[in-house]
């Protein structure tokens, strides 16, 4: 069984990790992936100014890709503590952390990024802690969890509150 646990730096993520770890610690055929979506890429790294000259355009495009990859590496390093902390929480709950892998996403739309990872990684289950949302978002379905519940077809969704 493949489970995707979407996490952030919140206590809700640690609560979800404790729940999953406690529930599945004696289930050896479960593999768990911790998935954290990085903050959005700065606008300056989304596109370059462009050029009429094809050689200059290629050079600008190459430099932009290098800068994007450097930004992603830097963000992964700085956000790695989020995944380490949740992994420690899993271990404290009795879950064998050798069955845990870690992945990052880096798009503006967190829910869409989680769903893309779930599809590409062929997970059966997505677990999320209830993300902190305002009353208005909860009432009108604008939160990450609500979007996952609405759009995740073919997955079991566990929402840990």
TrEMBL record:
Signal peptide positions (record): none
A Pfam family it matches: Usp
UspA domain residues: 2-153
Family: Belongs to the universal stress protein A family.
Protein's name in the database: Putative Universal stress protein
Organism: Nitrospira lenta
């Amino acid at each position: 069984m493949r489970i995707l646990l979407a996490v952030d730096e919140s206590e809700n993520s640690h609560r979800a990790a404790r729940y999953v770890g406690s529930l599945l610690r004696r289930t050896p055929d479960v593999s768990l992936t911790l998935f954290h979506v990085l903050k959005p890429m700065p606008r300056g790294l989304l596109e370059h100014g462009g050029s009429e000259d094809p050689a200059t355009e290629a050079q600008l495009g190459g430099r932009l890709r290098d800068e994007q990859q450097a930004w992603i590496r830097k963000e992964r390093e700085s956000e790695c503590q989020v995944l380490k902390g949740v992994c420690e929480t899993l271990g404290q709950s009795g879950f064998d952390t050798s069955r845990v892998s870690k992945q990052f996403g880096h798009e503006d739309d967190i829910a869409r990024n989680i769903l893309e990872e779930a599809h590409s990684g062929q997970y059966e289950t997505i677990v999320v802690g209830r993300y902190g949302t305002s009353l208005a978002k909860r009432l009108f379905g604008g939160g990450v969890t609500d979007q996952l519940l609405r759009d995740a077809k073919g997955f079991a969704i566990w929402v840990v509150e």
